[in-house]
Every structure is written in structure tokens, then in C-alpha cells.
């Protein structure tokens, strides 16, 4: 069942308003040098679902040390999503629960509050340039990076032969190419995040970070294809579901 037209209009209005608050430059001292001096804590956020159930999910937050990428904190919570799914509006379903996880951390272990958050989804690389990572970033006030495993085909960016050719040209970990909209604006980058993986991830700005810094940080946090904060959040949320619902299969939500 599709959301009523009034709800879509309300969400579009909220996105437009919040979009104006996105900061696309580096704002933190640790971002000013390529080796990120002073960066000590990076977080990953994710939601995992039981297959066939798009309402009940495990909301997951992990905080890792940097640069060692050891888990310092984790929070797994079963949540019930109430907002309907609508392409382009994923954040209205998921953001409240991801923010609650950050709020619990701030209350219980404020010294472990992350200096940057990785979100399993897109930031500016979105239908209206305001994806899940932007939503989380603006409402939390924290620097945020969107990293998607699959290409969202928007604003003239398609998974066509040219795109595949650009992927083939990524020779080593750290190589990237821009995701350019029809307007010419660069909305994100495809990054080969590891020498081990030829499939890229798609990095875009969420909030309070530049695209180049977001790409460099994603690469520096990647042991495998998916950067460790998101990989750990995904693994631990799936483990939680397997432990509590042993008969069920798990999956992740939509990527926006």
C-alpha cells in the first residue's frame, strides 16, 4: 500500500528543509590531514531484517577505535518500523531508530560518542540529494558518511557499459571515479575500497565532511570491501537476529 499523497508531500517538504542544513565541507580538526590525527572513534549504523518481514528489524550501532578498528561499543535493539517504505524516503522509516541508538550511547557512555558515523546507505547521492546519511548527520549533528554496496541509479547515473568500464579501470584499493549527475554535479564517488575486491562501494557526503575526505576515510577504514564500521554493524545485527530468531533468514533493508 502506497503512502498517502499528503504524507509524501510532507516528507518532500521536510527533506527540502533539512537539505539546506547539510554541510559539505570538512568541519573537524582531525579532517585537516590525510592521516586523520586526533580521530579515535568511528561508528557504523545499520538495520537488518528477518527475511519476509519488513517491519521488525535489528537496529545496530557499533563504535570502533581508530586506526585499529577494534570494537569499543555495540548496541543491538529490536525495533518495529511504523512508517511505510517509499523509494527516496527510506530515512523516514529508519532514522528515528538509528538516532535512538546514538542517544542511548550519549547517555550511557558519553566518552565513546563517535567523531564520525558511517551509514549503510547514501548521502547526497540520492534522488533529491538527501539520503539516509544526510538525514542521520543533520539530525545528530555528527559528521556522517554514506556508503552503499549497490548503485542507486539516479540523476543520470546508470549501471551501463560506461559505468562498468570505469569500474574495470580501478586498478587498486583507493582508486575511485566520480558519480556525476546530468547537471555535471559530482554527487559521490565509486571507490575500490580494497585490493581484495574488484566491486566498488559508493561513497557520498552525509554531513560535515568533504567528499574527498569521506572517500579517503572510507578507504582507511576498509579491511575488506565494506568499511569496517558498517561491516561490523551488519555482522552483529545479523548475529543478533540469528540468536533470537534461529529459524529465520536475515537480510538488510533498502539502500538509499
Textual characterization of the structure:
- With 256 residues, the chain is an alpha+beta fold.
- It has one domain (27-252): archaeoglobus fulgidus dsm 4304 fold (2-Layer Sandwich).
- 30% of the residues lie in helices and 24% in strands.
- The chain contains 6 helices and 9 strands, in the order H-E-E-E-H-E-H-E-H-E-E-E-H-H-E.
- Strands 1, 2, 3, 4, 5, 6, 7, 8 and 9 form a 9-stranded mixed beta sheet that branches.
- Helix 2 (90-108) runs parallel beside helix 3 (132-140).
- The longest helix has 19 residues, at 90-108.
- The two termini are 20 Å apart.
- The model has no long low-confidence stretch (mean pLDDT 95).
**Total tally of structural domains:** 1
Radius of gyration using CA atoms only: 17 Å
CATH level-two architecture: 2-Layer Sandwich
- Provide the CATH top-level class: Alpha Beta
Q: Helicity, in percent? A: 25-40%
What's the rounded overall pLDDT mean? 95
Measured by DSSP, the beta-strand proportion falls in 15-25%
Shape: globular
